[in-house]
Write a structure and sequence with these properties.
177 residues, two-stranded antiparallel ribbon, 2 strands
Length: 177
């Protein structure tokens, strides 16, 4: 176990030495005769990775464009004739239904007009019957008044005649027997 601790300590010491060597401000790395600081290397790495990412994106866009061109070139318009036939049948059925509804509507209007005319006719005949009934009642009343006057007149005449006969019978001396 002591040996493992020594190995770990040695690894830590190596990492600290690398940090001092490569991460200090004064560190200079030489690549192909050019000298770079760690900051310049990071900027260069960022720039190169951005350029490569842009190129990859452009390639993917171009590939999608090529695929789209193939699809457009191979596009076949679907056969909609069956759909058009069904649509025509539906339109024809709709027109028939519309005609049927219009016929029903017109028949209902005619029925309502006839019923209205019949109601008007019934009202007119009821009013006429009422007028005739009222006239008959007036005529009967007038007849009753006339008959009553006539009867009263005859009764009055009969009363006078009876009174005269009674008076004569009472004035007659022979009638006392």
């Amino acid at each position: 176990m002591a040996e493992e601790i020594k190995d770990i300590n040695a690894a830590i010491d190596n990492a600290e030495a690398a940090v001092k060597k490569y991460a200090s401000k004064d560190t200079v790395i030489s690549i192909g005769g050019y000298e770079f600081t760690p900051a310049k290397l990071m900027v260069a790495f960022t720039l190169v990775s951005s350029i490569l990412g842009g190129l990859y994106g452009a390639f993917e866009v171009y590939k999608s464009y090529q695929d789209m061109q193939k699809k457009i070139a191979n596009y076949v318009t679907p056969d909609l004739s069956e759909f058009d036939k069904r649509l025509a049948v539906m339109e024809q059925n709709s027109q028939k239904e519309l005609d049927y509804v219009n016929n029903i509507k017109n028949d209902l209007k005619a029925d309502i007009r006839r019923q209205g005319d019949q109601i008007d006719q019934v009202e007119r005949s009821a009013k006429q019957a009422q007028r005739e009934t009222d006239q008959s009642v007036r005529d009967v009343r007038n007849e009753n008044r006339t008959l009553q006057k006539e009867v009263e007149g005859r009764l009055s005449v009969l009363q006078k005649e009876i009174d005269n006969k009674i008076q004569k019978a009472m004035d007659n001396p022979l009638s006392s027997r």
